Amino acid sequence: MMEDVYKLAKFRYECGNYKHSASYLYFYLLVMPHTDKNYLNVLWGKLASEILLQNWDSALEDLNRLREYIDNNSFASPLHHLQQRAWLIHWSLFVFFNHIKGRDAIIEMFLYRANYLNAIQTMCPHILRYLAAAVIVNHSRRGALKDLVKVIQQESYTYKDPITEFIEHLYVNFDFEGARRKLHECQAVVFNDFFLTGCLEEFLENARLLTFETFCRIHQCISIEMLAEKLNMDVDEAECWIVNLIRNARLDAKIDLKLGHVVMGTQPISPYQQLLEKVDSLSVRSEALQGIIEKKLRAKNQDVSRNSFY
Fold first, then answer.
1. What was the pLDDT predicted at 306?
2. In this protein, which residues make up the domain named PCI (predicted)?
């Protein structure tokens, strides 16, 4: 009977009736065990249906369920396992760039889950574009920049695009002129990218803010004219932008209108924010370690079972 439900769900999906397909697959997953021969296909089908229906909450749940299945089960070969992770990485972009919590989730999965970072580095380094963009637009995850920079440096010989090069110019070479040129190129890249085009303004705003923050770490007193040049803005626009930053409490600085200078104040990092970032990083790494231990225990138990059988 459940085989017929599976075939009916597949038929509905191929006809474009994704709502009914998702419903059938939901009940299939409720009834059948993880060891069922169709279970993995059903997980993929359910995720695809929810993506096409744009049910992003359900899609995120299905994405996490599929990730857990892939991580906790063995496949025919290591290459097959790697391919499953690579496919999941690509499909997850639909969810991460549409779900409200996606920008945090993409950083945790792509940057802090070693198996998925390894899959990106091995099979799909072009995904670094989306990881870099997510870190740039996510103001609350600035702590991830240090780890992102390391990955971009490691992979710079296999993959480069204006977004990753912008990060490299800014945080590795401290080449503000190069970063300015790359930011100009980033505008066209983000605008024409299917997943990133919706956050163009946010990307440019945060990229300028990163440039400004990095420049300010080096200079205590900055000419507005020089700053405008580094940010690809005219002088009046740059002055207005800085005023808004100060007004919104995102910048501790004063403007000397007579001299046309920005004088920086001290900007200590909040201990609370440091603690949150470390806890987030530790929780993800602890979960990864737990998964490795459980996998080894399962393999050990299987060996014991085989030995006792013989």
1. 58
2. 95-269
CATH number of the domain within which 16 lies = 1.25.40
- What is the edge-to-edge ordering of all strands in the sheet holding 221-223? 221-223, 261-264, 253-256
Integer Cα distance of 164 and 103 in angstroms: 17
pTM: 0.79
Distance CA 114, CA 222 (A): 41
Q: Is residue 275 part of a domain?
A: no
Q: Is residue 48 part of a domain?
A: yes
Q: Provide the angle, in degrees to the nearest 10, between the axes of the packed helices 235-247 and 200-218.
A: 90
Other CB atoms within 10 Å distance of the CB of residue 78: 9
| Alpha helices (H) in the chain, listed in sequence order | 2-14, 18-31, 39-53, 56-72, 78-96, 102-112, 114-123, 128-137, 144-155, 162-171, 176-192, 200-218, 224-230, 235-247, 271-309
Spatial neighbors of 88 by CB under 8 A, at least 6 apart, are: 63, 66, 67, 70, 116
Tokens of 86: 């690579």
The residue range of the domain holding 26 is 1-73
pLDDT at 268: 54
Total domains in the chain come to 1
Compute the distance between CA of residue 67 and CA of residue 263 in angstroms, rounded to an integer. 48
d(CA 226, CA 231): 9
pLDDT at 187 (0 to 100): 94
Is 10 a member of any domain?
Answer: yes
Provide block-wise average pLDDT over 10 residues at a time, the chain (310 residues): 88 93 93 89 96 96 95 88 96 96 93 93 95 92 88 91 94 88 94 94 90 76 78 80 70 68 62 64 67 73 59
> Cα separation of 261 and 263, whole Å?
6
- pLDDT attached to residue 277: 62
What DSSP state is assigned to residue 138? -
